[in-house]
Amino acid sequence: MADSQSYEYTDSDSYSINPDFDPDNEKTHLDLYNEENDVDPDNEGNDLDLNLFGNEYDWNDLDLTDSERDQNNTDMDLTDNERDQNNTDLDLTDNEDQNVTNFNQPHSTRPRLRKEKYPSSVWHHFTKTNKPVCKRCKTVFACKTATSTLRRHLNTHKIIAPKRRQRSLHDYRNDAHTEREQQERDNHVIRWIICDTQPFCVVDNNEWRNMISTFDPRYRFHNRHTIKDKIIRLYKEKKEQVKLIMSNIPGKAAFTSDMWTASNGTAFLSLTIHYIDASWELKSFLLDIIPMSVRHSGANIADAIMAVLYEFDLVEKTLALTTDNASSMLACGTIMAAELEREFDNLNFAHYRCAAHVLNLAVGQGIRLIDGSVGKVRALMTYIKSSHPLNEALKALCNMKGIAYLTPEVDVKTR
Q1: Under a CB-based contact definition with an 8 Å cutoff, are residues 298 and 335 in contact?
Q2: Is the dihedral of CA 393, 398, 404, 406 positive or negative?
Q3: In total, how many domains does the chain have?
């Protein structure tokens, strides 16, 4: 519509609107409209609208410009609630208008809309003002200094500010691990139980499970029976590997053995192997620990050792056995030498007595010459060790004299 104050209708316009319009007829287009719609032109209460091109127009609209008319049309399409909201906005006071954020202002003065949820750890060591200030040396940095620069400054004070690891979708998974991943984690648990001599029931401890769940929520727990079966299975696998290593020994092997009784009264017999591998390197490791529930006689000890040699196929490679000077061990060496000679024609086997044990026996015999003085020292050490007040008094005396305090010990005859 043109930007004129009035609209002048032509004959062509009238004909395009009403095909029956006769241009020679003296009646105007308005008269025809009134006749068709029964409109009384003398009645001021009637709303006279022109239906031009399918749009409704108010008579007052004829005096508006195009921009004003478009604004009116937009307002006509609003709902009652939207129109009320517009009216409310118009009623704001000057103070209320000042509280509205002006997003057209420069970026440097625009208020910050998002608060940093996870601040960097470097800010524990800096004062967050207009400019970062180091709490240790009061060094002032520029306001836009990056955290990496601040972290390098902390390195000069030997302060480590760890970086926060960005969490990935993997951290939010709660499904179980794959079979390979679960087996890898089970192996670490089993290795920890073996190396730290933990009981099997440790995997049933609630605090232990809570700790593991915190580290790895996807880990599936096993009871003590399953862990025991896994450890026994691992022991058998390692045993087969040891047998394979033993079969590759190029020469002979020597053994050392000892027997002791644990605090619970159970006796054990140890057997350690010593050999030189293909690279001419000396290798030594514990081959087996044998529980001895029978009488500790030379024959029983010899049978237990020979059973281990047969199991690892080391009978023909046995060169020597070293033990202490106990009578049962001396009898064991004699029995083994006879059996190896009889069964395998092994004439090179020899039994040796431990040199350190022989030296300890000789020193023990020499101490008996001054047994009276040694006995008094033993009695004194035993008394101080069993008395807490005397032990504390000894510590105070050592501190007074500037002497390092050592816990009183009593010698062992067999050591």
Answers
A1: yes
A2: negative
A3: 5
| Residue 121 counted as domain residue | no
Q: Give the three-class secondary structure for 283.
A: strand
- For the beta carbon of residue 189, count every other beta carbon within 10 angstroms: 20
State how far the Cα of 217 lies from the Cα of 210, in Å rounded to an integer.
Answer: 9
Pairing of strands 253-261, 318-323: parallel
Classified as helix, coil or strand, 206 is helix
Based on the fold, state whether residues 203 and 262 are members of the same structural domain.
no
Q: Is the pTM of this model over 0.85?
A: no
For residue range 120-163, list pLDDT tens digits in order: 888 888 887 788 999 989 898 988 888 888 888 998 888 888 77
Mean pLDDT of 61-77: 52
Q: What share of the chain is helix, strand, coil (3-state, %, to 5)?
A: 50, 10, 40
| Residue 306 CB-half CA count within 13 A | 17
Kindly state whether residues 223 and 285 are assigned to the same domain: no
Full residue range of the structural domain in which residue 392 is found: 364-415
Main-chain dihedrals φ then ψ at residue 40, nearest 5 degrees: -90, 110
Nearest-angstrom CA–CA distance, 173 and 166: 15
* Helix (H/G/I), strand (E/B), else coil: 272: strand
| Cβ–Cβ < 8 Å for 257, 271 | yes
